[in-house]
Amino acid sequence: MASRGHCLELDAADPLAHLKCEFALPQGVIYLDGNSLGARPRAALARAQEVIGHEWGQDLICSWNKAGWFDMPKRLGDRLAPLIGARPGEVVVTDTTSLNLFKALAGALRMQAEGPGGHRRVIVTERSNFPTDIYIAQGLSEWMDRGYTLRLVDSVDELPAAVDEQCAVLMLTHVNYRTGYQHDMAALTRHAHDNGALAVWDLAHSAGALPVDLHGAQADFAVGCTYKYLNGGPGSPAFIWVPQRHQARFTQPVTGWWGHAAPFAMSPGFEPVEGIGRAMCGTQPVVSLAMVECGLDVFEKTDMQSVRAKSLALTDLFIELVESRCTGHPLQLVTPRDHARRGSQVSFTHPHGYAVMQALIARGVIGDYREPHIMRFGFTPLYTSFADVWDAVEILKDILDRRDYDINAARSAVT
Ligand SMILES: *Cc1c(COP(=O)(O)O)cnc(C)c1O
How far is the CA of 97 from the centre of ligand 1 (A)? Predict the structure, then answer.
């Protein structure tokens, strides 16, 4: 039977425990929302001061060269690559996940249109995918006005049959934002290829959360966030991966000057640069990009196998404690128990999920809420301890036992 003492022993034996001090976390807060906005690396404050005070303040425009601002999207992409099974020269950190998905999807549709799959007009994804991914696919399809349609699938079991001879692209998010369900990327990509489709993966809830092997899975394109598990800061630029084997054929519609072969030639004709640079569009938010590096620095002090081992131990413990200590309450686990199918979050439904989450937040346990009725708890092994898990469950138990939540709690704009 678990106890707080046992959790403290797990912390004492945890090879990642020392990384918690790399993050600035407020006293009295148990932060279980790193799947939505990662915590601040301690080093980010000094780095922001350097970028704003010195690089911008003193060196002004010279910093594009002198401080390496111009190369940052590619340099950071190369540093991020090993976390997702990509190679140098295949990733850029740029724009937003929504925009990068637009570019990747447009590129994939164009590759199909120019090849033997030219007749294919269907994009397959899940109805439960993160809405922006669906909206982007809808928007692109409608705007192209070439008969492209979106096929929304209601369960994982229906996916294989949905990838038929009409399917151009299978577009999936590797780990579901609501349930924490993890797809089998290699098997689904193989299935897509066997049926003539390309596979585009969104790694928003995978990058920095668990080991990803894009090359091992033979994936075609991928995008993802840096402000979640990679701790890049609010609104930090996202990433896009185009494997070397597709780069020469990859084109995308937002052909801005940062994707040009010679941006400072200032010529009136667009000529895409060779390599991953063609996935870029225009000038990047330098201050925000610089913060991404502070998040990546921490990952250099460990490896994704260790992160994954601790993530599974934390999520296993949380599930076990909630189910054994919060008995008699209408809580239902929606996250897979199977390790192979689980991301790095645990979601429980409760009929008053929103109110209970507000009560948790008021008591310093920060998770979040997603419709319908889902309380979402993200576990970030770099800065979450086993004792944190114990304490969070005890507070949850106390709130539920005493019904200490307001079922009329007003909804904020961000839940
Ligand atoms: C968080 C998330 C996004 C966010 O996209 P933005 O363009 O950064 O707002 C997109 N897709 C998925 C699957 C996500 O989880």
Answer: 5
Please give the backbone phi and psi of residue 331, each rounded to the nearest 5 degrees, phi first.
-100, 135
Beta bridge partners of 30: 365
The domain at 70-300 falls in which architecture? Answer: 3-Layer(aba) Sandwich (3.40)
358 SS3 class: helix
What fold is seen in the domain 4-42+303-402? Answer: Aspartate Aminotransferase, domain 1 (3.90.1150)
Least Cα distance to 230 among 83, 21, 365, 98 occurs for 83
pTM (two decimals): 0.97
Q: How far apart are CA 130 and CA 176, in angstroms?
A: 8
Q: How far apart are the first and last CA of the chain?
A: 34
**4-42+303-402 and 70-300: same fold?**
no
How many A from CA of 98 to the centre of ligand 1?
6
Residue range 365-410, pLDDT digits in tens: 999 999 999 999 999 999 999 999 999 999 999 999 999 999 988 8
